[in-house]
Structure formats: C-alpha cells, structure tokens
Amino acid sequence: MPYIRRMTSTPGPVETEIRQRLEAEFSPRELIVSNDSAMHSGHSGDDGSGESHFTVTIVSDAFAGVSRLQRQRMVNGALGDLPGQRVHALAIKARAPGEA
Amino acid sequence: MSDVNARIQDIVTADDVVLFMKGTPLFPQCGFSSRAVAILDHCGVAFGSVDVLQDMEIRQGIKSFSDWPTIPQLYVKGEFVGGSDIMMEMFEAGELQQLMNEKQVAKAD
Lengths: 100, 109
Fold this sequence. Notes:
heterodimer; A: alpha+beta; three-stranded mixed β-sheet; 3 helices; B: about 110 residues; alpha+beta; 4 strands
C-alpha cells in the first residue's frame, strides 16, 4: 500500500509548507499538522493530491490573551494562500500554553 | 461600497443569524458547513443561510467582506463571529449559546 505509506510517514510539500510557515511565524511550543486527506478520498474537495484536508494544532505564546477570532486570523495570515485556495479544508486549533 | 459588499451587508442584517455555507442546511456540501448547521440546530436558533456554491459573486465577496478565507462563516446581528472551528470551540464552552441569548436572537420554530 504505497499510497497509505506516503500519507503517514513522509509529509508532502503542502504539509511541509504549512509546518515551515507556522514555525517561522509563531515559534510554537507544540505543532501537530495532521493530514486527514485519506479520510476524505473521493469526496468533494479531494483533488487527488493527497493533501486536501489538514488539521493544525498549534500551541504558542503568541496566542496568550488573544481572542479566538484573532488567533485564527493570525494563523490564516501566516499560511497565506493555503487556506481556502490551495488547501480545501483546514481545521485550526490555536492555543496558548496551559490552555486545554 | 461595491455592489457585492452592499448585497452582503443586506444579507447579514436580514436575519438575526446568518450562515454562509456550501450547500443548504438540509443538504450541506461540505463537512465544515454540515457541522456549522448542526451547531446552530443545537443552539435552537432560527437562521438564514446562503449557499455560496450557487453565487460566485458572494462566494468571493464574502471572503474579503469578512477578511476570512474560508466557508462557512457565521454572522450574528450583522457581526462576524467566525468559521466552523470557532463555532465549535464557542459551542463546547457554552459561549455560543450565551452570545445568542445576549443578542436576543430569534428562536427556531
């Protein structure tokens, strides 16, 4: 199953770009970029790249005292044209250290 | 204000709660839109919805209007609340229900 192996072990170019952009912008204490695309294979939004659906969990000091709306704007801003254009679906969980 | 912004301004103030989504509440065309509808149903509020897949002008225009790159988008009393991640976080914390109460939005029939 080479397809599955690629999904789980080697990050694709989009996943790598997400990670690099967020690391550069937020110096996160924790960063999980999970590629959920395989769960959506064949659904609308699956462009065949295997990199259409992601969930980002990021913990950074930059989010302390910042509203939910503003956190998402910060993350979207750091990701440039990825959300909504190059990535079909991107769920974002942005936390400050110590938050659940 | 451009025509599309004027159109959107009219839409977001036409109902207390307005959801810009892909598809319709009965037939959502995207998992995030589906989740947004489910959350509003749980809150028991009446809401208007706009299927952006049926209107390219709105689909593009709402992104700059809200300065938000993705769909769905929730408006309450003309004010942008957020997308599906924010809706879910607020709902789980009880804050969305609180917001609906404070804003005294119309209940679902």
